[in-house]
């Protein structure tokens, strides 16, 4: 609805009418300036106009809020603190600006997401597009010493909108700048429109009232801009108990569709139940998580275990495990039996979650999801409570190949031997060029007891077929110069009695190959004839420096892309999965565990020699998409043709090309 069709009165009522939708959304989507006074301001108000926040940002709509310093919203208090000085605002703006339109897109898709909401609000404040001032009635601070009196706070609830053509809309009513004020509370407001002559007197009075307060012309109010002084007052006025109901409605969790098992999963489960210890080597996308949770269910319901420890690394993957376990538990919430999965306690020890001590106090009927930190795992596994329950604990190591690192070997040798049930999960459990790490994994967890490779999964229709495209490249003059420098350093080191190993030489040379100078320009040539492959794609790069160069090329074919490096919110992957963005440029962070069923294409701009990483990256796009049953993916790879320069017996790119080409010929047997 356009603002020109506004009525003179609006209220939230049972007929699905709301102030937020009819008044606020209509005006904010078209205005150039918004100023209002309100008793309470909450970031939840952004939900009302989530669908056009991108337009507010792009069109630089100025918003000004004058409110009381009683801030119930903890996230908002943190944001205000982060923007309390010019220096902080500048830093906050730089951090928020890079992906702000993508955050707006994500918030539009998921308005309950606090991460998006906080980032958008912080950006608007730090940029100066949203200005907040605080009004305190004269003498109120002295009155606070004798007890809070919320009714004596700044309680004005009016405001106005300016439009580019000179129109003005003002309102005066009972609603606050919060989600409940916009939508759910029984609120009412009068509306005054400049193109209706009968409204002009009241419109002028309302505009003057709010302007006088904002410009500090009201003698009964003290007005504070955002700064350190007002932050102290906000903390002082913060209510110990909420003065009004919760702002955000609880998020509804969709019912799970159930956990049907494929034949290979049933075989894997039987193999582990029989052996009790060992590794399931299953291709990415073939249901390792579901398989392991079914193992937990069978062992727990039969009283063979009382407790589960799930360990892997990376907050993205750990968070995905936590979500999967919660949804799995929810399926059994109505089961009243003593050994019901619905009765399990779930504890998390990763990111900002610190619940390991709570898990250790209980252990029985509990699941702990813990980061693969060697010191943290050692602290956990040597605890006497674990020793007391070791015969009834199942420990699961996802992406178990990572468990064989030097830090793990030095800290955790022998730590698992007394735990009765030990399960490892990986698409490729062996560690290339690390026999000691592979042996450690076998000793601690057990041998490989079941295998289900990519080719079997494609034939069975568990993974989709794919096409393989190669882009040949040669070294530039600068690349060759970099290689000469490597050999010079090698020779110099040998003269000093410190010869290089073959592995070190290959590692140094591979860095030149991975970041070859002409890869961006060759990618551009390829995309000129294959523009459609940018849609639903991940570009895997060596580092942020190369990522910026590749992003410049990708940006020529779509504006809907983002980089995904350390610190980028995980929710951007959800946007890719839901086709809200077209492409992501990423490093190692997306190698493992991230489930993106709709992803169609991957570009291997930079690829290590180890087969493990390539298999994991291919697994990102080979998952079957229930919404696209005819899906055929594409793998685009860069192949070095100057192999003699690298002195490799079996050049890494040629070796990779050989086995990927063989996989690309595999067809679904029941197609």
Which structural traits does this protein have?
alpha/beta; Endonuclease, Chain A; Rossmann fold; 3 domains; 7-stranded parallel β-sheet; globular
List the helices and strands and how they pair.
Layout lengths: L8 E3 L7 H10 L4 E6 L14 H6 L3 E6 L6 H9 L3 H12 L2 H10 L4 H14 L2 E8 L2 H5 L13 E5 L5 E6 L5 H6 L3 E6 L6 H15 L6 E5 L2 H10 L25 H13 L1 E6 L5 H14 L5 E6 L2 H16 L14 E5 L6 H7 L3 E6 L2 H8 L2 H6 L3 E5 L8 H7 L8 E6 L8 H10 L3 E5 L1 H6 L6 E8 L3 H19 L6 H13 L4 H11 L7 E4 L3 H11 L6 E4 L6 H7 L5 E4 L14 E4 L6 H11 L11 E8 L2 H4 L5 H13 L7
Parallel strand pairs: 2-3, 3-4, 9-14, 9-15, 10-12, 10-13, 11-12, 13-14, 16-21, 17-19, 17-20, 18-19, 20-21
Antiparallel strand pairs: 1-7, 2-5, 4-8, 5-6, 6-7
What does this 3D model show about the protein?
- About 7% of the residues have low confidence.
- This protein has an eight-stranded mixed β-sheet, sandwiched between helices.
- It has three domains: 193 residues, Endonuclease, Chain A (2-Layer Sandwich), CATH 3.30.870; 190 residues, 3-Layer(aba) Sandwich (Rossmann fold), CATH 3.40.50.300; 199 residues, 3-Layer(aba) Sandwich (Rossmann fold), CATH 3.40.50.300.
- It is α/β, with parallel strands linked by helices and 671 residues long.
- The protein contains 27 helices and 21 strands.
- It is globular, with a radius of gyration of 30 Å.
